[in-house]
Amino acid sequence: MVRPGLLVLIASCSFTPPASDGDGGMDSRTADGGGDAFSDGNIVGATATFDASKFVSAGGVATVSWTHTASGTSRLVVVAVSQTNSGSAVTAVTYGGAAMTLLGTKINTTKSIAISMFKLVAPPTGPQPVVMAFAGTVTVVAGSISFTSVDQITPTGSFVSAAGGDPPPSPSVTVPSAKTDLVMDTIVVDTNPSNITPGALQTERWNTSNNMWAAASTKPGEEASTATSWTENGSPDDWAMGAVSIHGGN
């Protein structure tokens, strides 16, 4: 039997529900200002992560192919190419038989060298053929990098590129980015340097010479923007470079 005084006490108590985020869930908040948000007790906005890379080098060809193996979840693959004879542009790139989307191209007209980057969201796992065709005969270094934990709706930011010559400016580009991004760049430099080396915090994914210098790297994204650069050791020469942010996601 409930005493009347106790019933009055219960009725007078108030209850404040948890704050709503406007869609019936708990209030969301930013973890550290770097883009890692907490929502309904779960972390969202994972950091994009390197998975695997592969590259090939060839001369006097109109097509080039190799095999890349991607794994993991929330995948993205980016193919980058450095080439001579920039007038013989890339006409098609396929990954596992699926057409890739052009991110951007940069040409250095002084030495007729160029770079291009292509992407494919949610590529199939396991060994897959990568095939690249050109409008004419080229010397080429081409490679692929796969990533995991990538935003599948907006996987990349804007393609940013630059070109220069001798004398410098030295090769460098700056792309919009966030702390959950991983920035990928690629470069072509004409023949003069003894070698090229990546900038601070960049992880070299390939770097080779074939009547030009050709390389690619990745670098953890920084808040607002991230710069990537290369140093031409020995005698500087003409170059072209491009980069893009890979956005982290679930």
Mean pLDDT, to the nearest integer, reads: 86
Provide the structure class.
Answer: mainly beta
Report the biggest beta sheet as strand number plus sense, adding barrel if it closes: 7 strands, antiparallel
**Shape category:** globular
Strand content: over 45%
Unreliable spans are 1-44
Calculate the terminal CA-CA distance, rounded to whole Å: 54 Å
- Helicity level: under 10%
| Rg | 24 Å
Structure, described:
By secondary structure, the protein is mainly beta. It has one helix at 4-12, and strands spanning 29-30, 37-39, 42-44, 49-70, 76-84, 90-95, 98-99, 101-108, 113-121, 126-148, 160-164, 172-177, 182-189, 193-198, 203-209, 213-220, 224-234, 239-246. The protein has one helix and 18 strands. The strands form four sheets. Strands 4, 5, 6, 7, 8, 9 and 10 form a seven-stranded antiparallel β-sheet that branches. A hairpin with a 3-residue loop joins strand 15 (203-209) and strand 16.
